[in-house]
Amino acid sequence: MKTLFILLDAFRHDYINPVDTPFLHAKISTGMYVRKLRSSTGFTQRTEVMTGTCGATSGRFTMHLFDSENSPYRFLRGNRKCRWVEREMELLAVLPGVPGLRWFRRRLRSRAKVQLERFRRTLRRRAEQEVHNAPPGQIPLSMLHEIGFSEDIRPLSAPGAYDELETIVDVLARENRPFDFLMYPEVECRDDLVLERVARGSQIDDWVCFAQFADSDALVHRFGPGSPERRSVAGEIDRKLRVLDAAFGNDCRWVIAGDHGMTDVQLRVDAAAEIAVAARNKGVRLGRDYLLFLDSTLARFRFKSPRGWGLLDEIKNSQMLAQHGRFLDNELAAELSIPFGDRRYGDLVWMADVGVLIDPDYFHDGRSSKGMHGYRSDHDDMKGIFLSFGPGIATGYREEARLRDVCPTICAAAGVAEPAHNEGTTLVRVL
Ligand SMILES: [Zn+2]
Description:
Layout: E1 2-8, H1 22-27, E2 32-38, H2 45-51, H3 55-58, E3 64-66, H4 80-94, H5 102-127, E4 147-149, H6 168-174, E5 179-182, H7 191-200, E6 208-213, H8 215-223, H9 228-248, E7 252-258, E8 263-264, E9 267-269, H10 271-282, E10 290-294, E11 298-303, H11 306-309, H12 311-316, H13 319-324, E12 325-327, H14 330-335, E13 348-352, E14 356-358, E15 371-372, E16 384-389, E17 396-402, H15 406-414
Parallel strand pairs: 1-6, 1-7, 2-17, 5-6, 9-14
Antiparallel strand pairs: 2-16, 3-4, 7-16, 8-15, 10-11, 11-13, 12-13
Helix pairs in contact: 4-5, 7-9, 8-9
The structure holds zinc ion.
């Protein structure tokens, strides 16, 4: 019996209906359906699925860490070219537009941008000799050498991805089961290629497949979950699932999970500018006295000097930040299954309210998102879906479950042991 785990990236619980997603909708009554799936807050859902642990247990919360010791970019410490390139971008940003010469300024800027992206790609190639997947995003070049990674240091597709946590892949390797891992970053977000490769596996006996359809993340970031485009994206994924169903026939158990949701962006806040004002007031310098990381929904601070610590109260007293979000404390971290007190995520973490986007952030260049996730995961918009069906899977319904429950569910469907540190409970009974 084959097992097909399909991750529908950012597929929100309310996308399923008979018009947009007729295949998924029809399958609900044939298997186990959980209407809302809730993950730990943050951006490390793949680890939650593959290990069955919440963020507080796995110690994983965001992809990027403050970790100068283990940063794959530490070769950039003191690098002159980084400072020079950044200085050039700053100068171009304030270059006055002389009438008639505006096109010239535009050309200079776009040329500099292309060069900057080329430079980033070179740096990334070098960093990835050490860390399997180390995207530099739009992190300021002068700060890259301080940044480490929480996931994908070694590939999740191979045994031994984590020193301290067992994954389903470790279990499958031990039990000698054939498997393939067709998820990010091994398969670079190309849904048509994923479909082709999964369909090819329908010939392998006892195969366990981990696949990911990612358009529901990428395109819905771009257009927003309230857009007509989102409905056609959901429909296209539904069509792909139907193709796979025809290819695999009755020799397959399916586990499908939308790992989190997405919400329409209502308001943009320029946290960087707000913090720059606070820093100027205190006479502290980014890089020397403190570090800042801007995930799209989080502003994280690491204080490096006593003077840098002086910024703490200034930030906490910011009216703008108080109005549009809150600071992470012990209690909130426990509620949202987030690790707390780990300085690699920052000495202070500000979480934006649902629908508030930090813009600019360290991921997006120019084109701003209309949809975002990574807000507190107990909000309904942040919840995904779960569906499992196939031979031996008992029918059933639950209103809500946790993303970590998906891990033991895949194991139950495949008939293998659960990873050693799993905290989830299987969502299916296999008859
Ligand atoms: Zn996303």
